[in-house]
Every structure is written in structure tokens, then in C-alpha cells.
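Schema walkthrough. Field components (list of strings):
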Amino acid sequence: MSRTPLANSVEAVLFVAEKPVSRGEIAKVVGATPRQVDAALLELAQGYTGTGLRLAHDGDDWQLVTSPEQAGAVSAYLGADRLRVSPASLETLAVIAYRQPVTRAEVEAIRGVNCDQTIYTLMQRRLIEERGRREAPGRPILYGTTWEFLECFGLSSLDELPRALTPEGGVLGPAEASAKTE
Amino acid sequence: MLNSQGPNVSIDGFDGPLELLLELVEEKKLDILTVRLGDLADAYLARVRALATLPADEVASFLALASRLVLLKARSLLPSLTPIADEDEGESEEELRARLMEYAIVRERAGALGDRLRSGERAFHREGGSPVNLPPRGGDMSALTAAWGRVLALAARQREEDMVAPGERYSVEDRTAEIEQIVSERGEVAFSELLGAAPTLGWAVVTFIALLDLYRRIVIDLEQNALFTDILIKRKERPPVPQTPA
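Field assembly_structure (string):
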């Protein structure tokens, strides 16, 4: 099965890119419409199944990354250390990842503890970042996850966040979970 | 201090009151949906007492929840009192239960994320580094061949010149006058022609300095149409001296 020429062009651009490339920018450089690019990206993503590469995206930004199964070899080559995150930071990260963009106060309301320190730690490790401010009294800072977060957890996109079980035993998707608590 | 089941201070935060309550529910194998939270008040208080060694502001959040649980317990023991308490004092049992359930989900998700992290199955992207350096435009295979041919020709000539006694002297002034003459007669001349077919280093340097001098004096114009092509030396058309307005 051979790929379409457009998929090959998109692959070549993503191969040389050192940072995520937006759908619009890909469309511009390969001379196609954003919709055609979507189709090419889908084709590529399917083509990478079972290979050492993967197509990851955060919103409309796309990047070619190594597949999580190859983490051992790539870590050894890069001399990368394994990231360690405390349980408290993981809880804060979980709230932000599933409910982003979210304010510190909202994270604290859910965890029931002060989260200054964990948010600071997560920012330092670039797992989360500021995403503007909520148009509400005090204009609190909004937080969201980063590309580093997706990479460190081996996720191709936020859609791959692990699903949690509800207390009733059913599987809870990110959207349902947010709706349930609002 | 109680055993490790109790809340403990960690480097970047401590386990909060909700986690303590959730732990009690799980420890007693109770159903989070049906447990009467007031029933947990005593066990919760026992744990909180052990927290006395913690800084006051950290204990405060535990105490707030403790008071809530005691109130819920009191209400369940004396149901007739419930209507009296409608001065309203914060969340009801169901609100607290909803919060506890949401926290349970967060903790489960945090656990799943932690598992992912520990499995080490992460992705990597192409690392920074410098972008590919592109050569200047205009080069091609034939240009490379031609350049190599010129190098070979020069190398061959070099040996002949070695046998010629040095001592040839050039003067920049003479050369400048010569070039000025050529340019004024012909309008333009190629740099390669000025150099001649077999320039010695001294000749090339003198010619070059003469050109720079002429250019500085605005006698000539220099032009190169494309990279690596011959340089054209042109007579400078002097603009008429502007009339200064009165």
C-alpha cells in the first residue's frame, strides 16, 4: 500500500521540523487545503501504527515523535533521565490535564488542599503552562498541559488520557467527568 | 504520630483532608455512594489528633472537614434537630459526598498517570540542533567541474612560474592610471580581462587595490550580475553638479 504524494510531503515537513507545526502552516508549505492536510495526517497516523514513530498533536499543532515502545532505546541514546513526579503533584497534574484550562482555585477546590507548591513544581518541569486568564474577578491565571506533558506520558494527544472508573464502575471520559462536576 | 496510613508531609505538598476521608472509606471497605459520612467522624478525628505536630495552617483544613463530619454525625443521631440548622452552614452531606467522589476520580487518574510515568513509555521529538545549512545558490555540478579545472591549470602554471626569477615590481599608481585609461576609453572592462590569463599574486593584488582606489574616488562602478560570475568595471557617469538654489 503506497501513500498519497500529499501524505509524503507532510511527512517530510514534519520530519525536519524541530517543533510542532500547525495544520495551517503545513497546508501553506505543501500547497494544500487544511482539509486535505487533515486527510494526509490521518493517513500518516495510520501508517505509523506498528512502527518506531508516531504522529502526536496538541490541538492543531502536529509533531513527529518516537513511539513509547521505543523509549528505552531512545532514552539510552539521549542519556535521558526518567521523570519523577510526587503523588501530590500527580494529583494536581491530573486535575489540570482533564479539566484544562483551569485556575489554581479550581484545582484546590477539587483536591481540598493548597496547590501553590505543586503548581510551581509542575511549571518548573514544564508539564503545565499558563494559558491566559479567566475573565472573572481577579482575572485568575488559567493553566493547561504542555507538549512536554504529552511526551513524558507517551500520549499522542489529550484524547489518549487514561480513562478513570467512576465510583459506579463505569468508564468516565474526560468530557463526562467535567460535565458531571460542573 | 500514627502509622504511615496517616497524612504525611511530602516535599511538594501534603495529603489533604479529602484524601484522609477517602482512605477511611476505603480502609473500612465502605461504599462511597451510601456511607453515612457522619459515621466516619470519630475515626477521622482520631487521625487528625495525630496531626498536632503539623504547622497550624496545615492542620486547619483538616479541622474544617472534621467539624463538618461532626455536624453530620450530630444530625444523624438527632434527626429532629435538622430543620433548626437552616441558618445554613456550608455544604450538605450530598455536596461533601460529590466532592469526595470527584476527588476519588482525580486520585485514580493521578494513579494512572503515575503508572504511565513509571512504565517509562514516553515519546521523544527531534532534538533542536542547527537547521540544515544550505549552500549558497548558484552552485551546480558543472560549476564545480569548471572550478576544479581552473585549480588544476593554476597548479600546473605554478611550477612554471617557480622557475621565473621574481623581481617583477608593480606600482599601484601606474596600474590605477592604466585602468582609468582603459575604462574611460571603453566604458567597461571585465575583471578577468584586467587580471590577464596568468596573473601572478603581486599583479592580482596591485590590480585589486587599484580598483578599490578607483571605486573610492567614484571613477568606476562595480557590477556582478550573479554569484561567481565575472565582475564588470564600468566608467562612473558623474551626475551633473546640482545647482544650488539661490
